[in-house]
Amino acid sequence: MRLALYEPDIPQNTGTLLRTAACLGLAVDLIEPAGFAVTDRNLRRAGLDYLDAAVLTRHSGWTAFDAARRAEGRRLILLTTAAAEPYLDFAFRPDDVILVGRESAGVPERVHASADARLIVPMRPGLRSLNVAIAATFVLGEALRQTAGFPPLVPAHGPGDPR
Ligand SMILES: C[S@@+](CC[C@H](N)C(=O)[O-])C[C@H]1O[C@@H](n2cnc3c(N)ncnc32)[C@H](O)[C@@H]1O
């Protein structure tokens, strides 16, 4: 399972997602341009002291990312508020790429059309969207549950250890 971020706008969300992916053992594809300079300094300021544990691949743009994804034979699973299929009804595969859109505008039509599946986290009517990191976390949790992809549990912390 991989997580892909389409032209993210907000470094704090990218930091949250990189940290989440690092903790879950997921690689991240960052599709540029981003709305901020993608530097270690900016990502660390976004709360990511987990950067060393993150597996991050930067792509110069959509075309480069999509070519790499297709070459590896991975399905593209887009999370979008424009979907009709709830994510809980979908059968995930271990090598799927889960793609989230940019905070300001989601993804353009050609990206929408390239996806093998488009999934929604159901919401109450009249409300626009979830925070991108929250939406991704719902779906990654289900995808990892279905594919038995969570990291094995080992006793890592004592009660007084830093988290
Ligand atoms: C803040 S939302 C973008 C809203 C944007 N106005 C749009 O039209 O897509 C950022 C990203 O979070 C994800 N997202 C947010 N809420 C979602 C939901 N309920 N179901 C699926 N994805 C969601 C999508 O990937 C979306 O592109």
Question: Can you walk me through this structure?
Answer:
Helix 1 links the parallel strand 1 and strand 2 (27-31). The chain has a single domain, classed as SPOUT methyltransferase, trefoil knot domain (Alpha/beta knot, 3-Layer(aba) Sandwich). The protein is built from five helices and seven strands. It has a seven-stranded parallel beta sheet. The radius of gyration is 16 Å and the shape is globular. The protein is α/β, with parallel strands linked by helices. The longest helix has 15 residues, at 132-146. 31% of the residues lie in helices and 18% in strands. It binds S-adenosylmethionine. S-adenosylmethionine binds at residues 79-81, 100-101, 103, 105-106, 120-121, 123, 129-130, 132, 135.
Layout of helices and strands, plus pairs?
Layout: E1 2-6, H1 11-24, E2 27-31, H2 40-45, E3 55-59, H3 62-71, E4 76-79, E5 85-86, E6 97-100, H4 109-114, E7 117-120, H5 132-146
Parallel strand pairs: 1-2, 1-6, 2-3, 4-6, 4-7, 5-7
Helix pairs in contact: 1-5
This protein binds S-adenosylmethionine (SAM).
S-adenosylmethionine binds at residues 79-81, 100-101, 103, 105-106, 120-121, 123, 129-130, 132, 135.
Domain tRNA/rRNA methyltransferase SpoU type: 2-140
Family: Belongs to the class IV-like SAM-binding methyltransferase superfamily. RNA methyltransferase TrmH family. TrmL subfamily.
Keywords: Cytoplasm, Methyltransferase, S-adenosyl-L-methionine, Transferase, tRNA processing
